[in-house]
């Protein structure tokens, strides 16, 4: 059996790998609309997203504390449980990325933690109140995105009612870059913190830190991993997010990015983990619905929602299987 310190090191490395994969898996969340409307060149969009993801990741640790302490008691979690949760989330992310499905990294990680905890320590080790709160927010946030996207787009149509469509789109072409910047910042503020919470859980359960506080080096490491992953780009998912849900014009892209940044950063301020993929997708649907309901390609939207529903139970099942193998190999 490897030493305890080596196991913790492997967990930290795996959590950073998850953050990196999350970066290229969810790059589309911030840049897809800007790329699809040609507001910004793809290479420049990815660099912008990577930079703002890094800055956003440094903005707080409230989400990290929720992930690390509200699903299960971190002091009673074994290293095999944590590693199994990460392995499950990574496998699900890679699978959905390969097929170009904009699924939720957040759902995959949360499902992975739940499945691994149940397999390793039973249902009694779960914090049901915390899980209920997290799942409520995961469900409510895309609904909020749909509503906010609809009303933001409706307001923009009203403000621009006396302008020609061409003039409106020329005006919002540049503004869309600012909205994409805000969306990338909010993405970093929420998603990068999830790995911070997992690493802190591993350190606390191993007795390497006295209290559940996210170390500074963890914040920097996760921010860098997210930014590097974002810089790689997720072009398959960009094609789905940027054009398959609804045909976007600059004013639509601006409304979608602005709406998603409001919802995601609002959740981050309250320490609530949300799926940035869910929120951005629902904001795009809301924006499209403001034009006309038929503008949204609901068949594609249905496929995406199906992946959303499947993610938590699927990743939980993979985590339970992963725990069995890891516990057998490591004995911890």
UniProtKB/TrEMBL annotation:
It comes from Heliobacterium mobile (Heliobacillus mobilis). It holds the Pfam family PHO4. It is found in: Membrane. InterPro entries: Phos_transporter. One of its GO terms (cellular component) is membrane. This is Inorganic phosphate transporter. It is a multi-pass membrane protein. The chain crosses the membrane at residues 41-64, 76-99, 105-123, 135-159, 195-212, 218-238, 307-330. GO terms for molecular function: phosphate transmembrane transporter activity. Its main location: membrane. Keywords: Membrane, Transmembrane, Transmembrane helix, Transport.
